[in-house]
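#struct-help
A.M.: can someone run this one for me? Single chain, 426 residues.
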Amino acid sequence: SFAYFTIKDRLPQILTRVIDTLHRHKNEFFEEHGEKGVEAEKRAISFLSKLRNELQTDKPVTPLEDELPDAALWNQYLDYQRNLSNGNGEPSWFQSPWLYAECYMYRRIHAALAQNPPIDNFDVFKEGKAQNFFESQEAVIALCTYFQELLKNIKDLEEKQLQEELFKLLQVSLWGNKCDLSFSAGGDSSQKSSPLQSLENMIPYILVNDMEKLWSLLVNAKKGNTEKSNIRIDIILDNAGFELVSDLVLADFLLSSKLADEIHFHGKSIPWYVSDTTKQDFNWTIKQLQSANHMWMSRCGINWEGNLKKGVWVYQDHMFWTLPHDFSCMAEVAPDLYADLQKSNLLLFKGDLNYRKLTGDRKWEYTVPFHQALNKFHPAPLCSLRTLKSDTQVGLKPGQGEQIQASESEWMVSGKYGVVQFDAAL
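D.P.: on it. Structure tokens below:
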């Protein structure tokens, strides 16, 4: 399975890269912290090398030994996995659910640094996230330019035009890291139109397309909003870099078009899954845009900083997003977060990891309804914007999955296909 390939090949490669990153920053640690920094780097590397060895030799998963606030929850979850195995030995790296083993590795990477001050705040993935942002410059410029041009006459758009623009920006956000390639393909295409040219061709690859349902929900919320309460949309973020910029543009559009009054962004409280967005990434991205020497990029950055200051944009993170639990456990494990999400008019879940946690990462039949796979996780109407990078997919029409499988065996893991999949939470 794809899970086996991930644990066997991809995760050790990621650990090797993390170790290499720490090696390369040795001088920097020395300059900042003296010998203490170098000692901490050595300890962290030895911790990570041991972790890599445990993974590659299929050792049992061990309880966390750090004092971080989520350690007890992780260790309870390990006990739960032990009980599931019905005495068939300890859960080990290759004898555990993929989602758990993968999340556990990232939590152990975090522990390797967190337990080794003074380098405990070093984000081993930061360089890669910054590189993704800089390599996507053309796409970012094209998107910011398109959006700023759109804002000039957004007040005059008729409902139909507004809907079209929403659908375009939803698709740009959906294709996230794929779009940057198609934006800048050919390099010098007119930037105003470039975000749109590729989108038309991508529509056949959206396997479930519930954009109309999203539109109805937003328009009805706006029209039915007699108490004049704030319409709130929450975006549960995925990757930093270009994808984050596409999410911020979508969020700005929702505010500027008056489809929403406030946007809450949910990021990760620790570095996670290589490129996931932390608060540091979120603020860094807005600062980069602000200081860009491109007029429309800096205009976006300045406006977005303003949205945060005014409180119409709120960034929040919660420990739950970096636990191994499915979202169906949220009401029990993180009742405060669940109660907060219940205040939202719409939850937009970005990316593949969120989809796996929404559906419990099971090998569902393709035709199982999305609502059923959510397993009673219904805090508010929600929508998953996700390109397929793991072998879990629900809510397809009969025969749809099998038909694609016949000609493309890798369709579920290539990122070529996507879904905009909605659940009304009733």
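A.M.: thanks! The beta strands are 206-209, 232-236, 262-267, 313-317, 346-350, 382-387, 418-423.
D.P.: also worth noting: The two ends are 35 Å apart (CA to CA).
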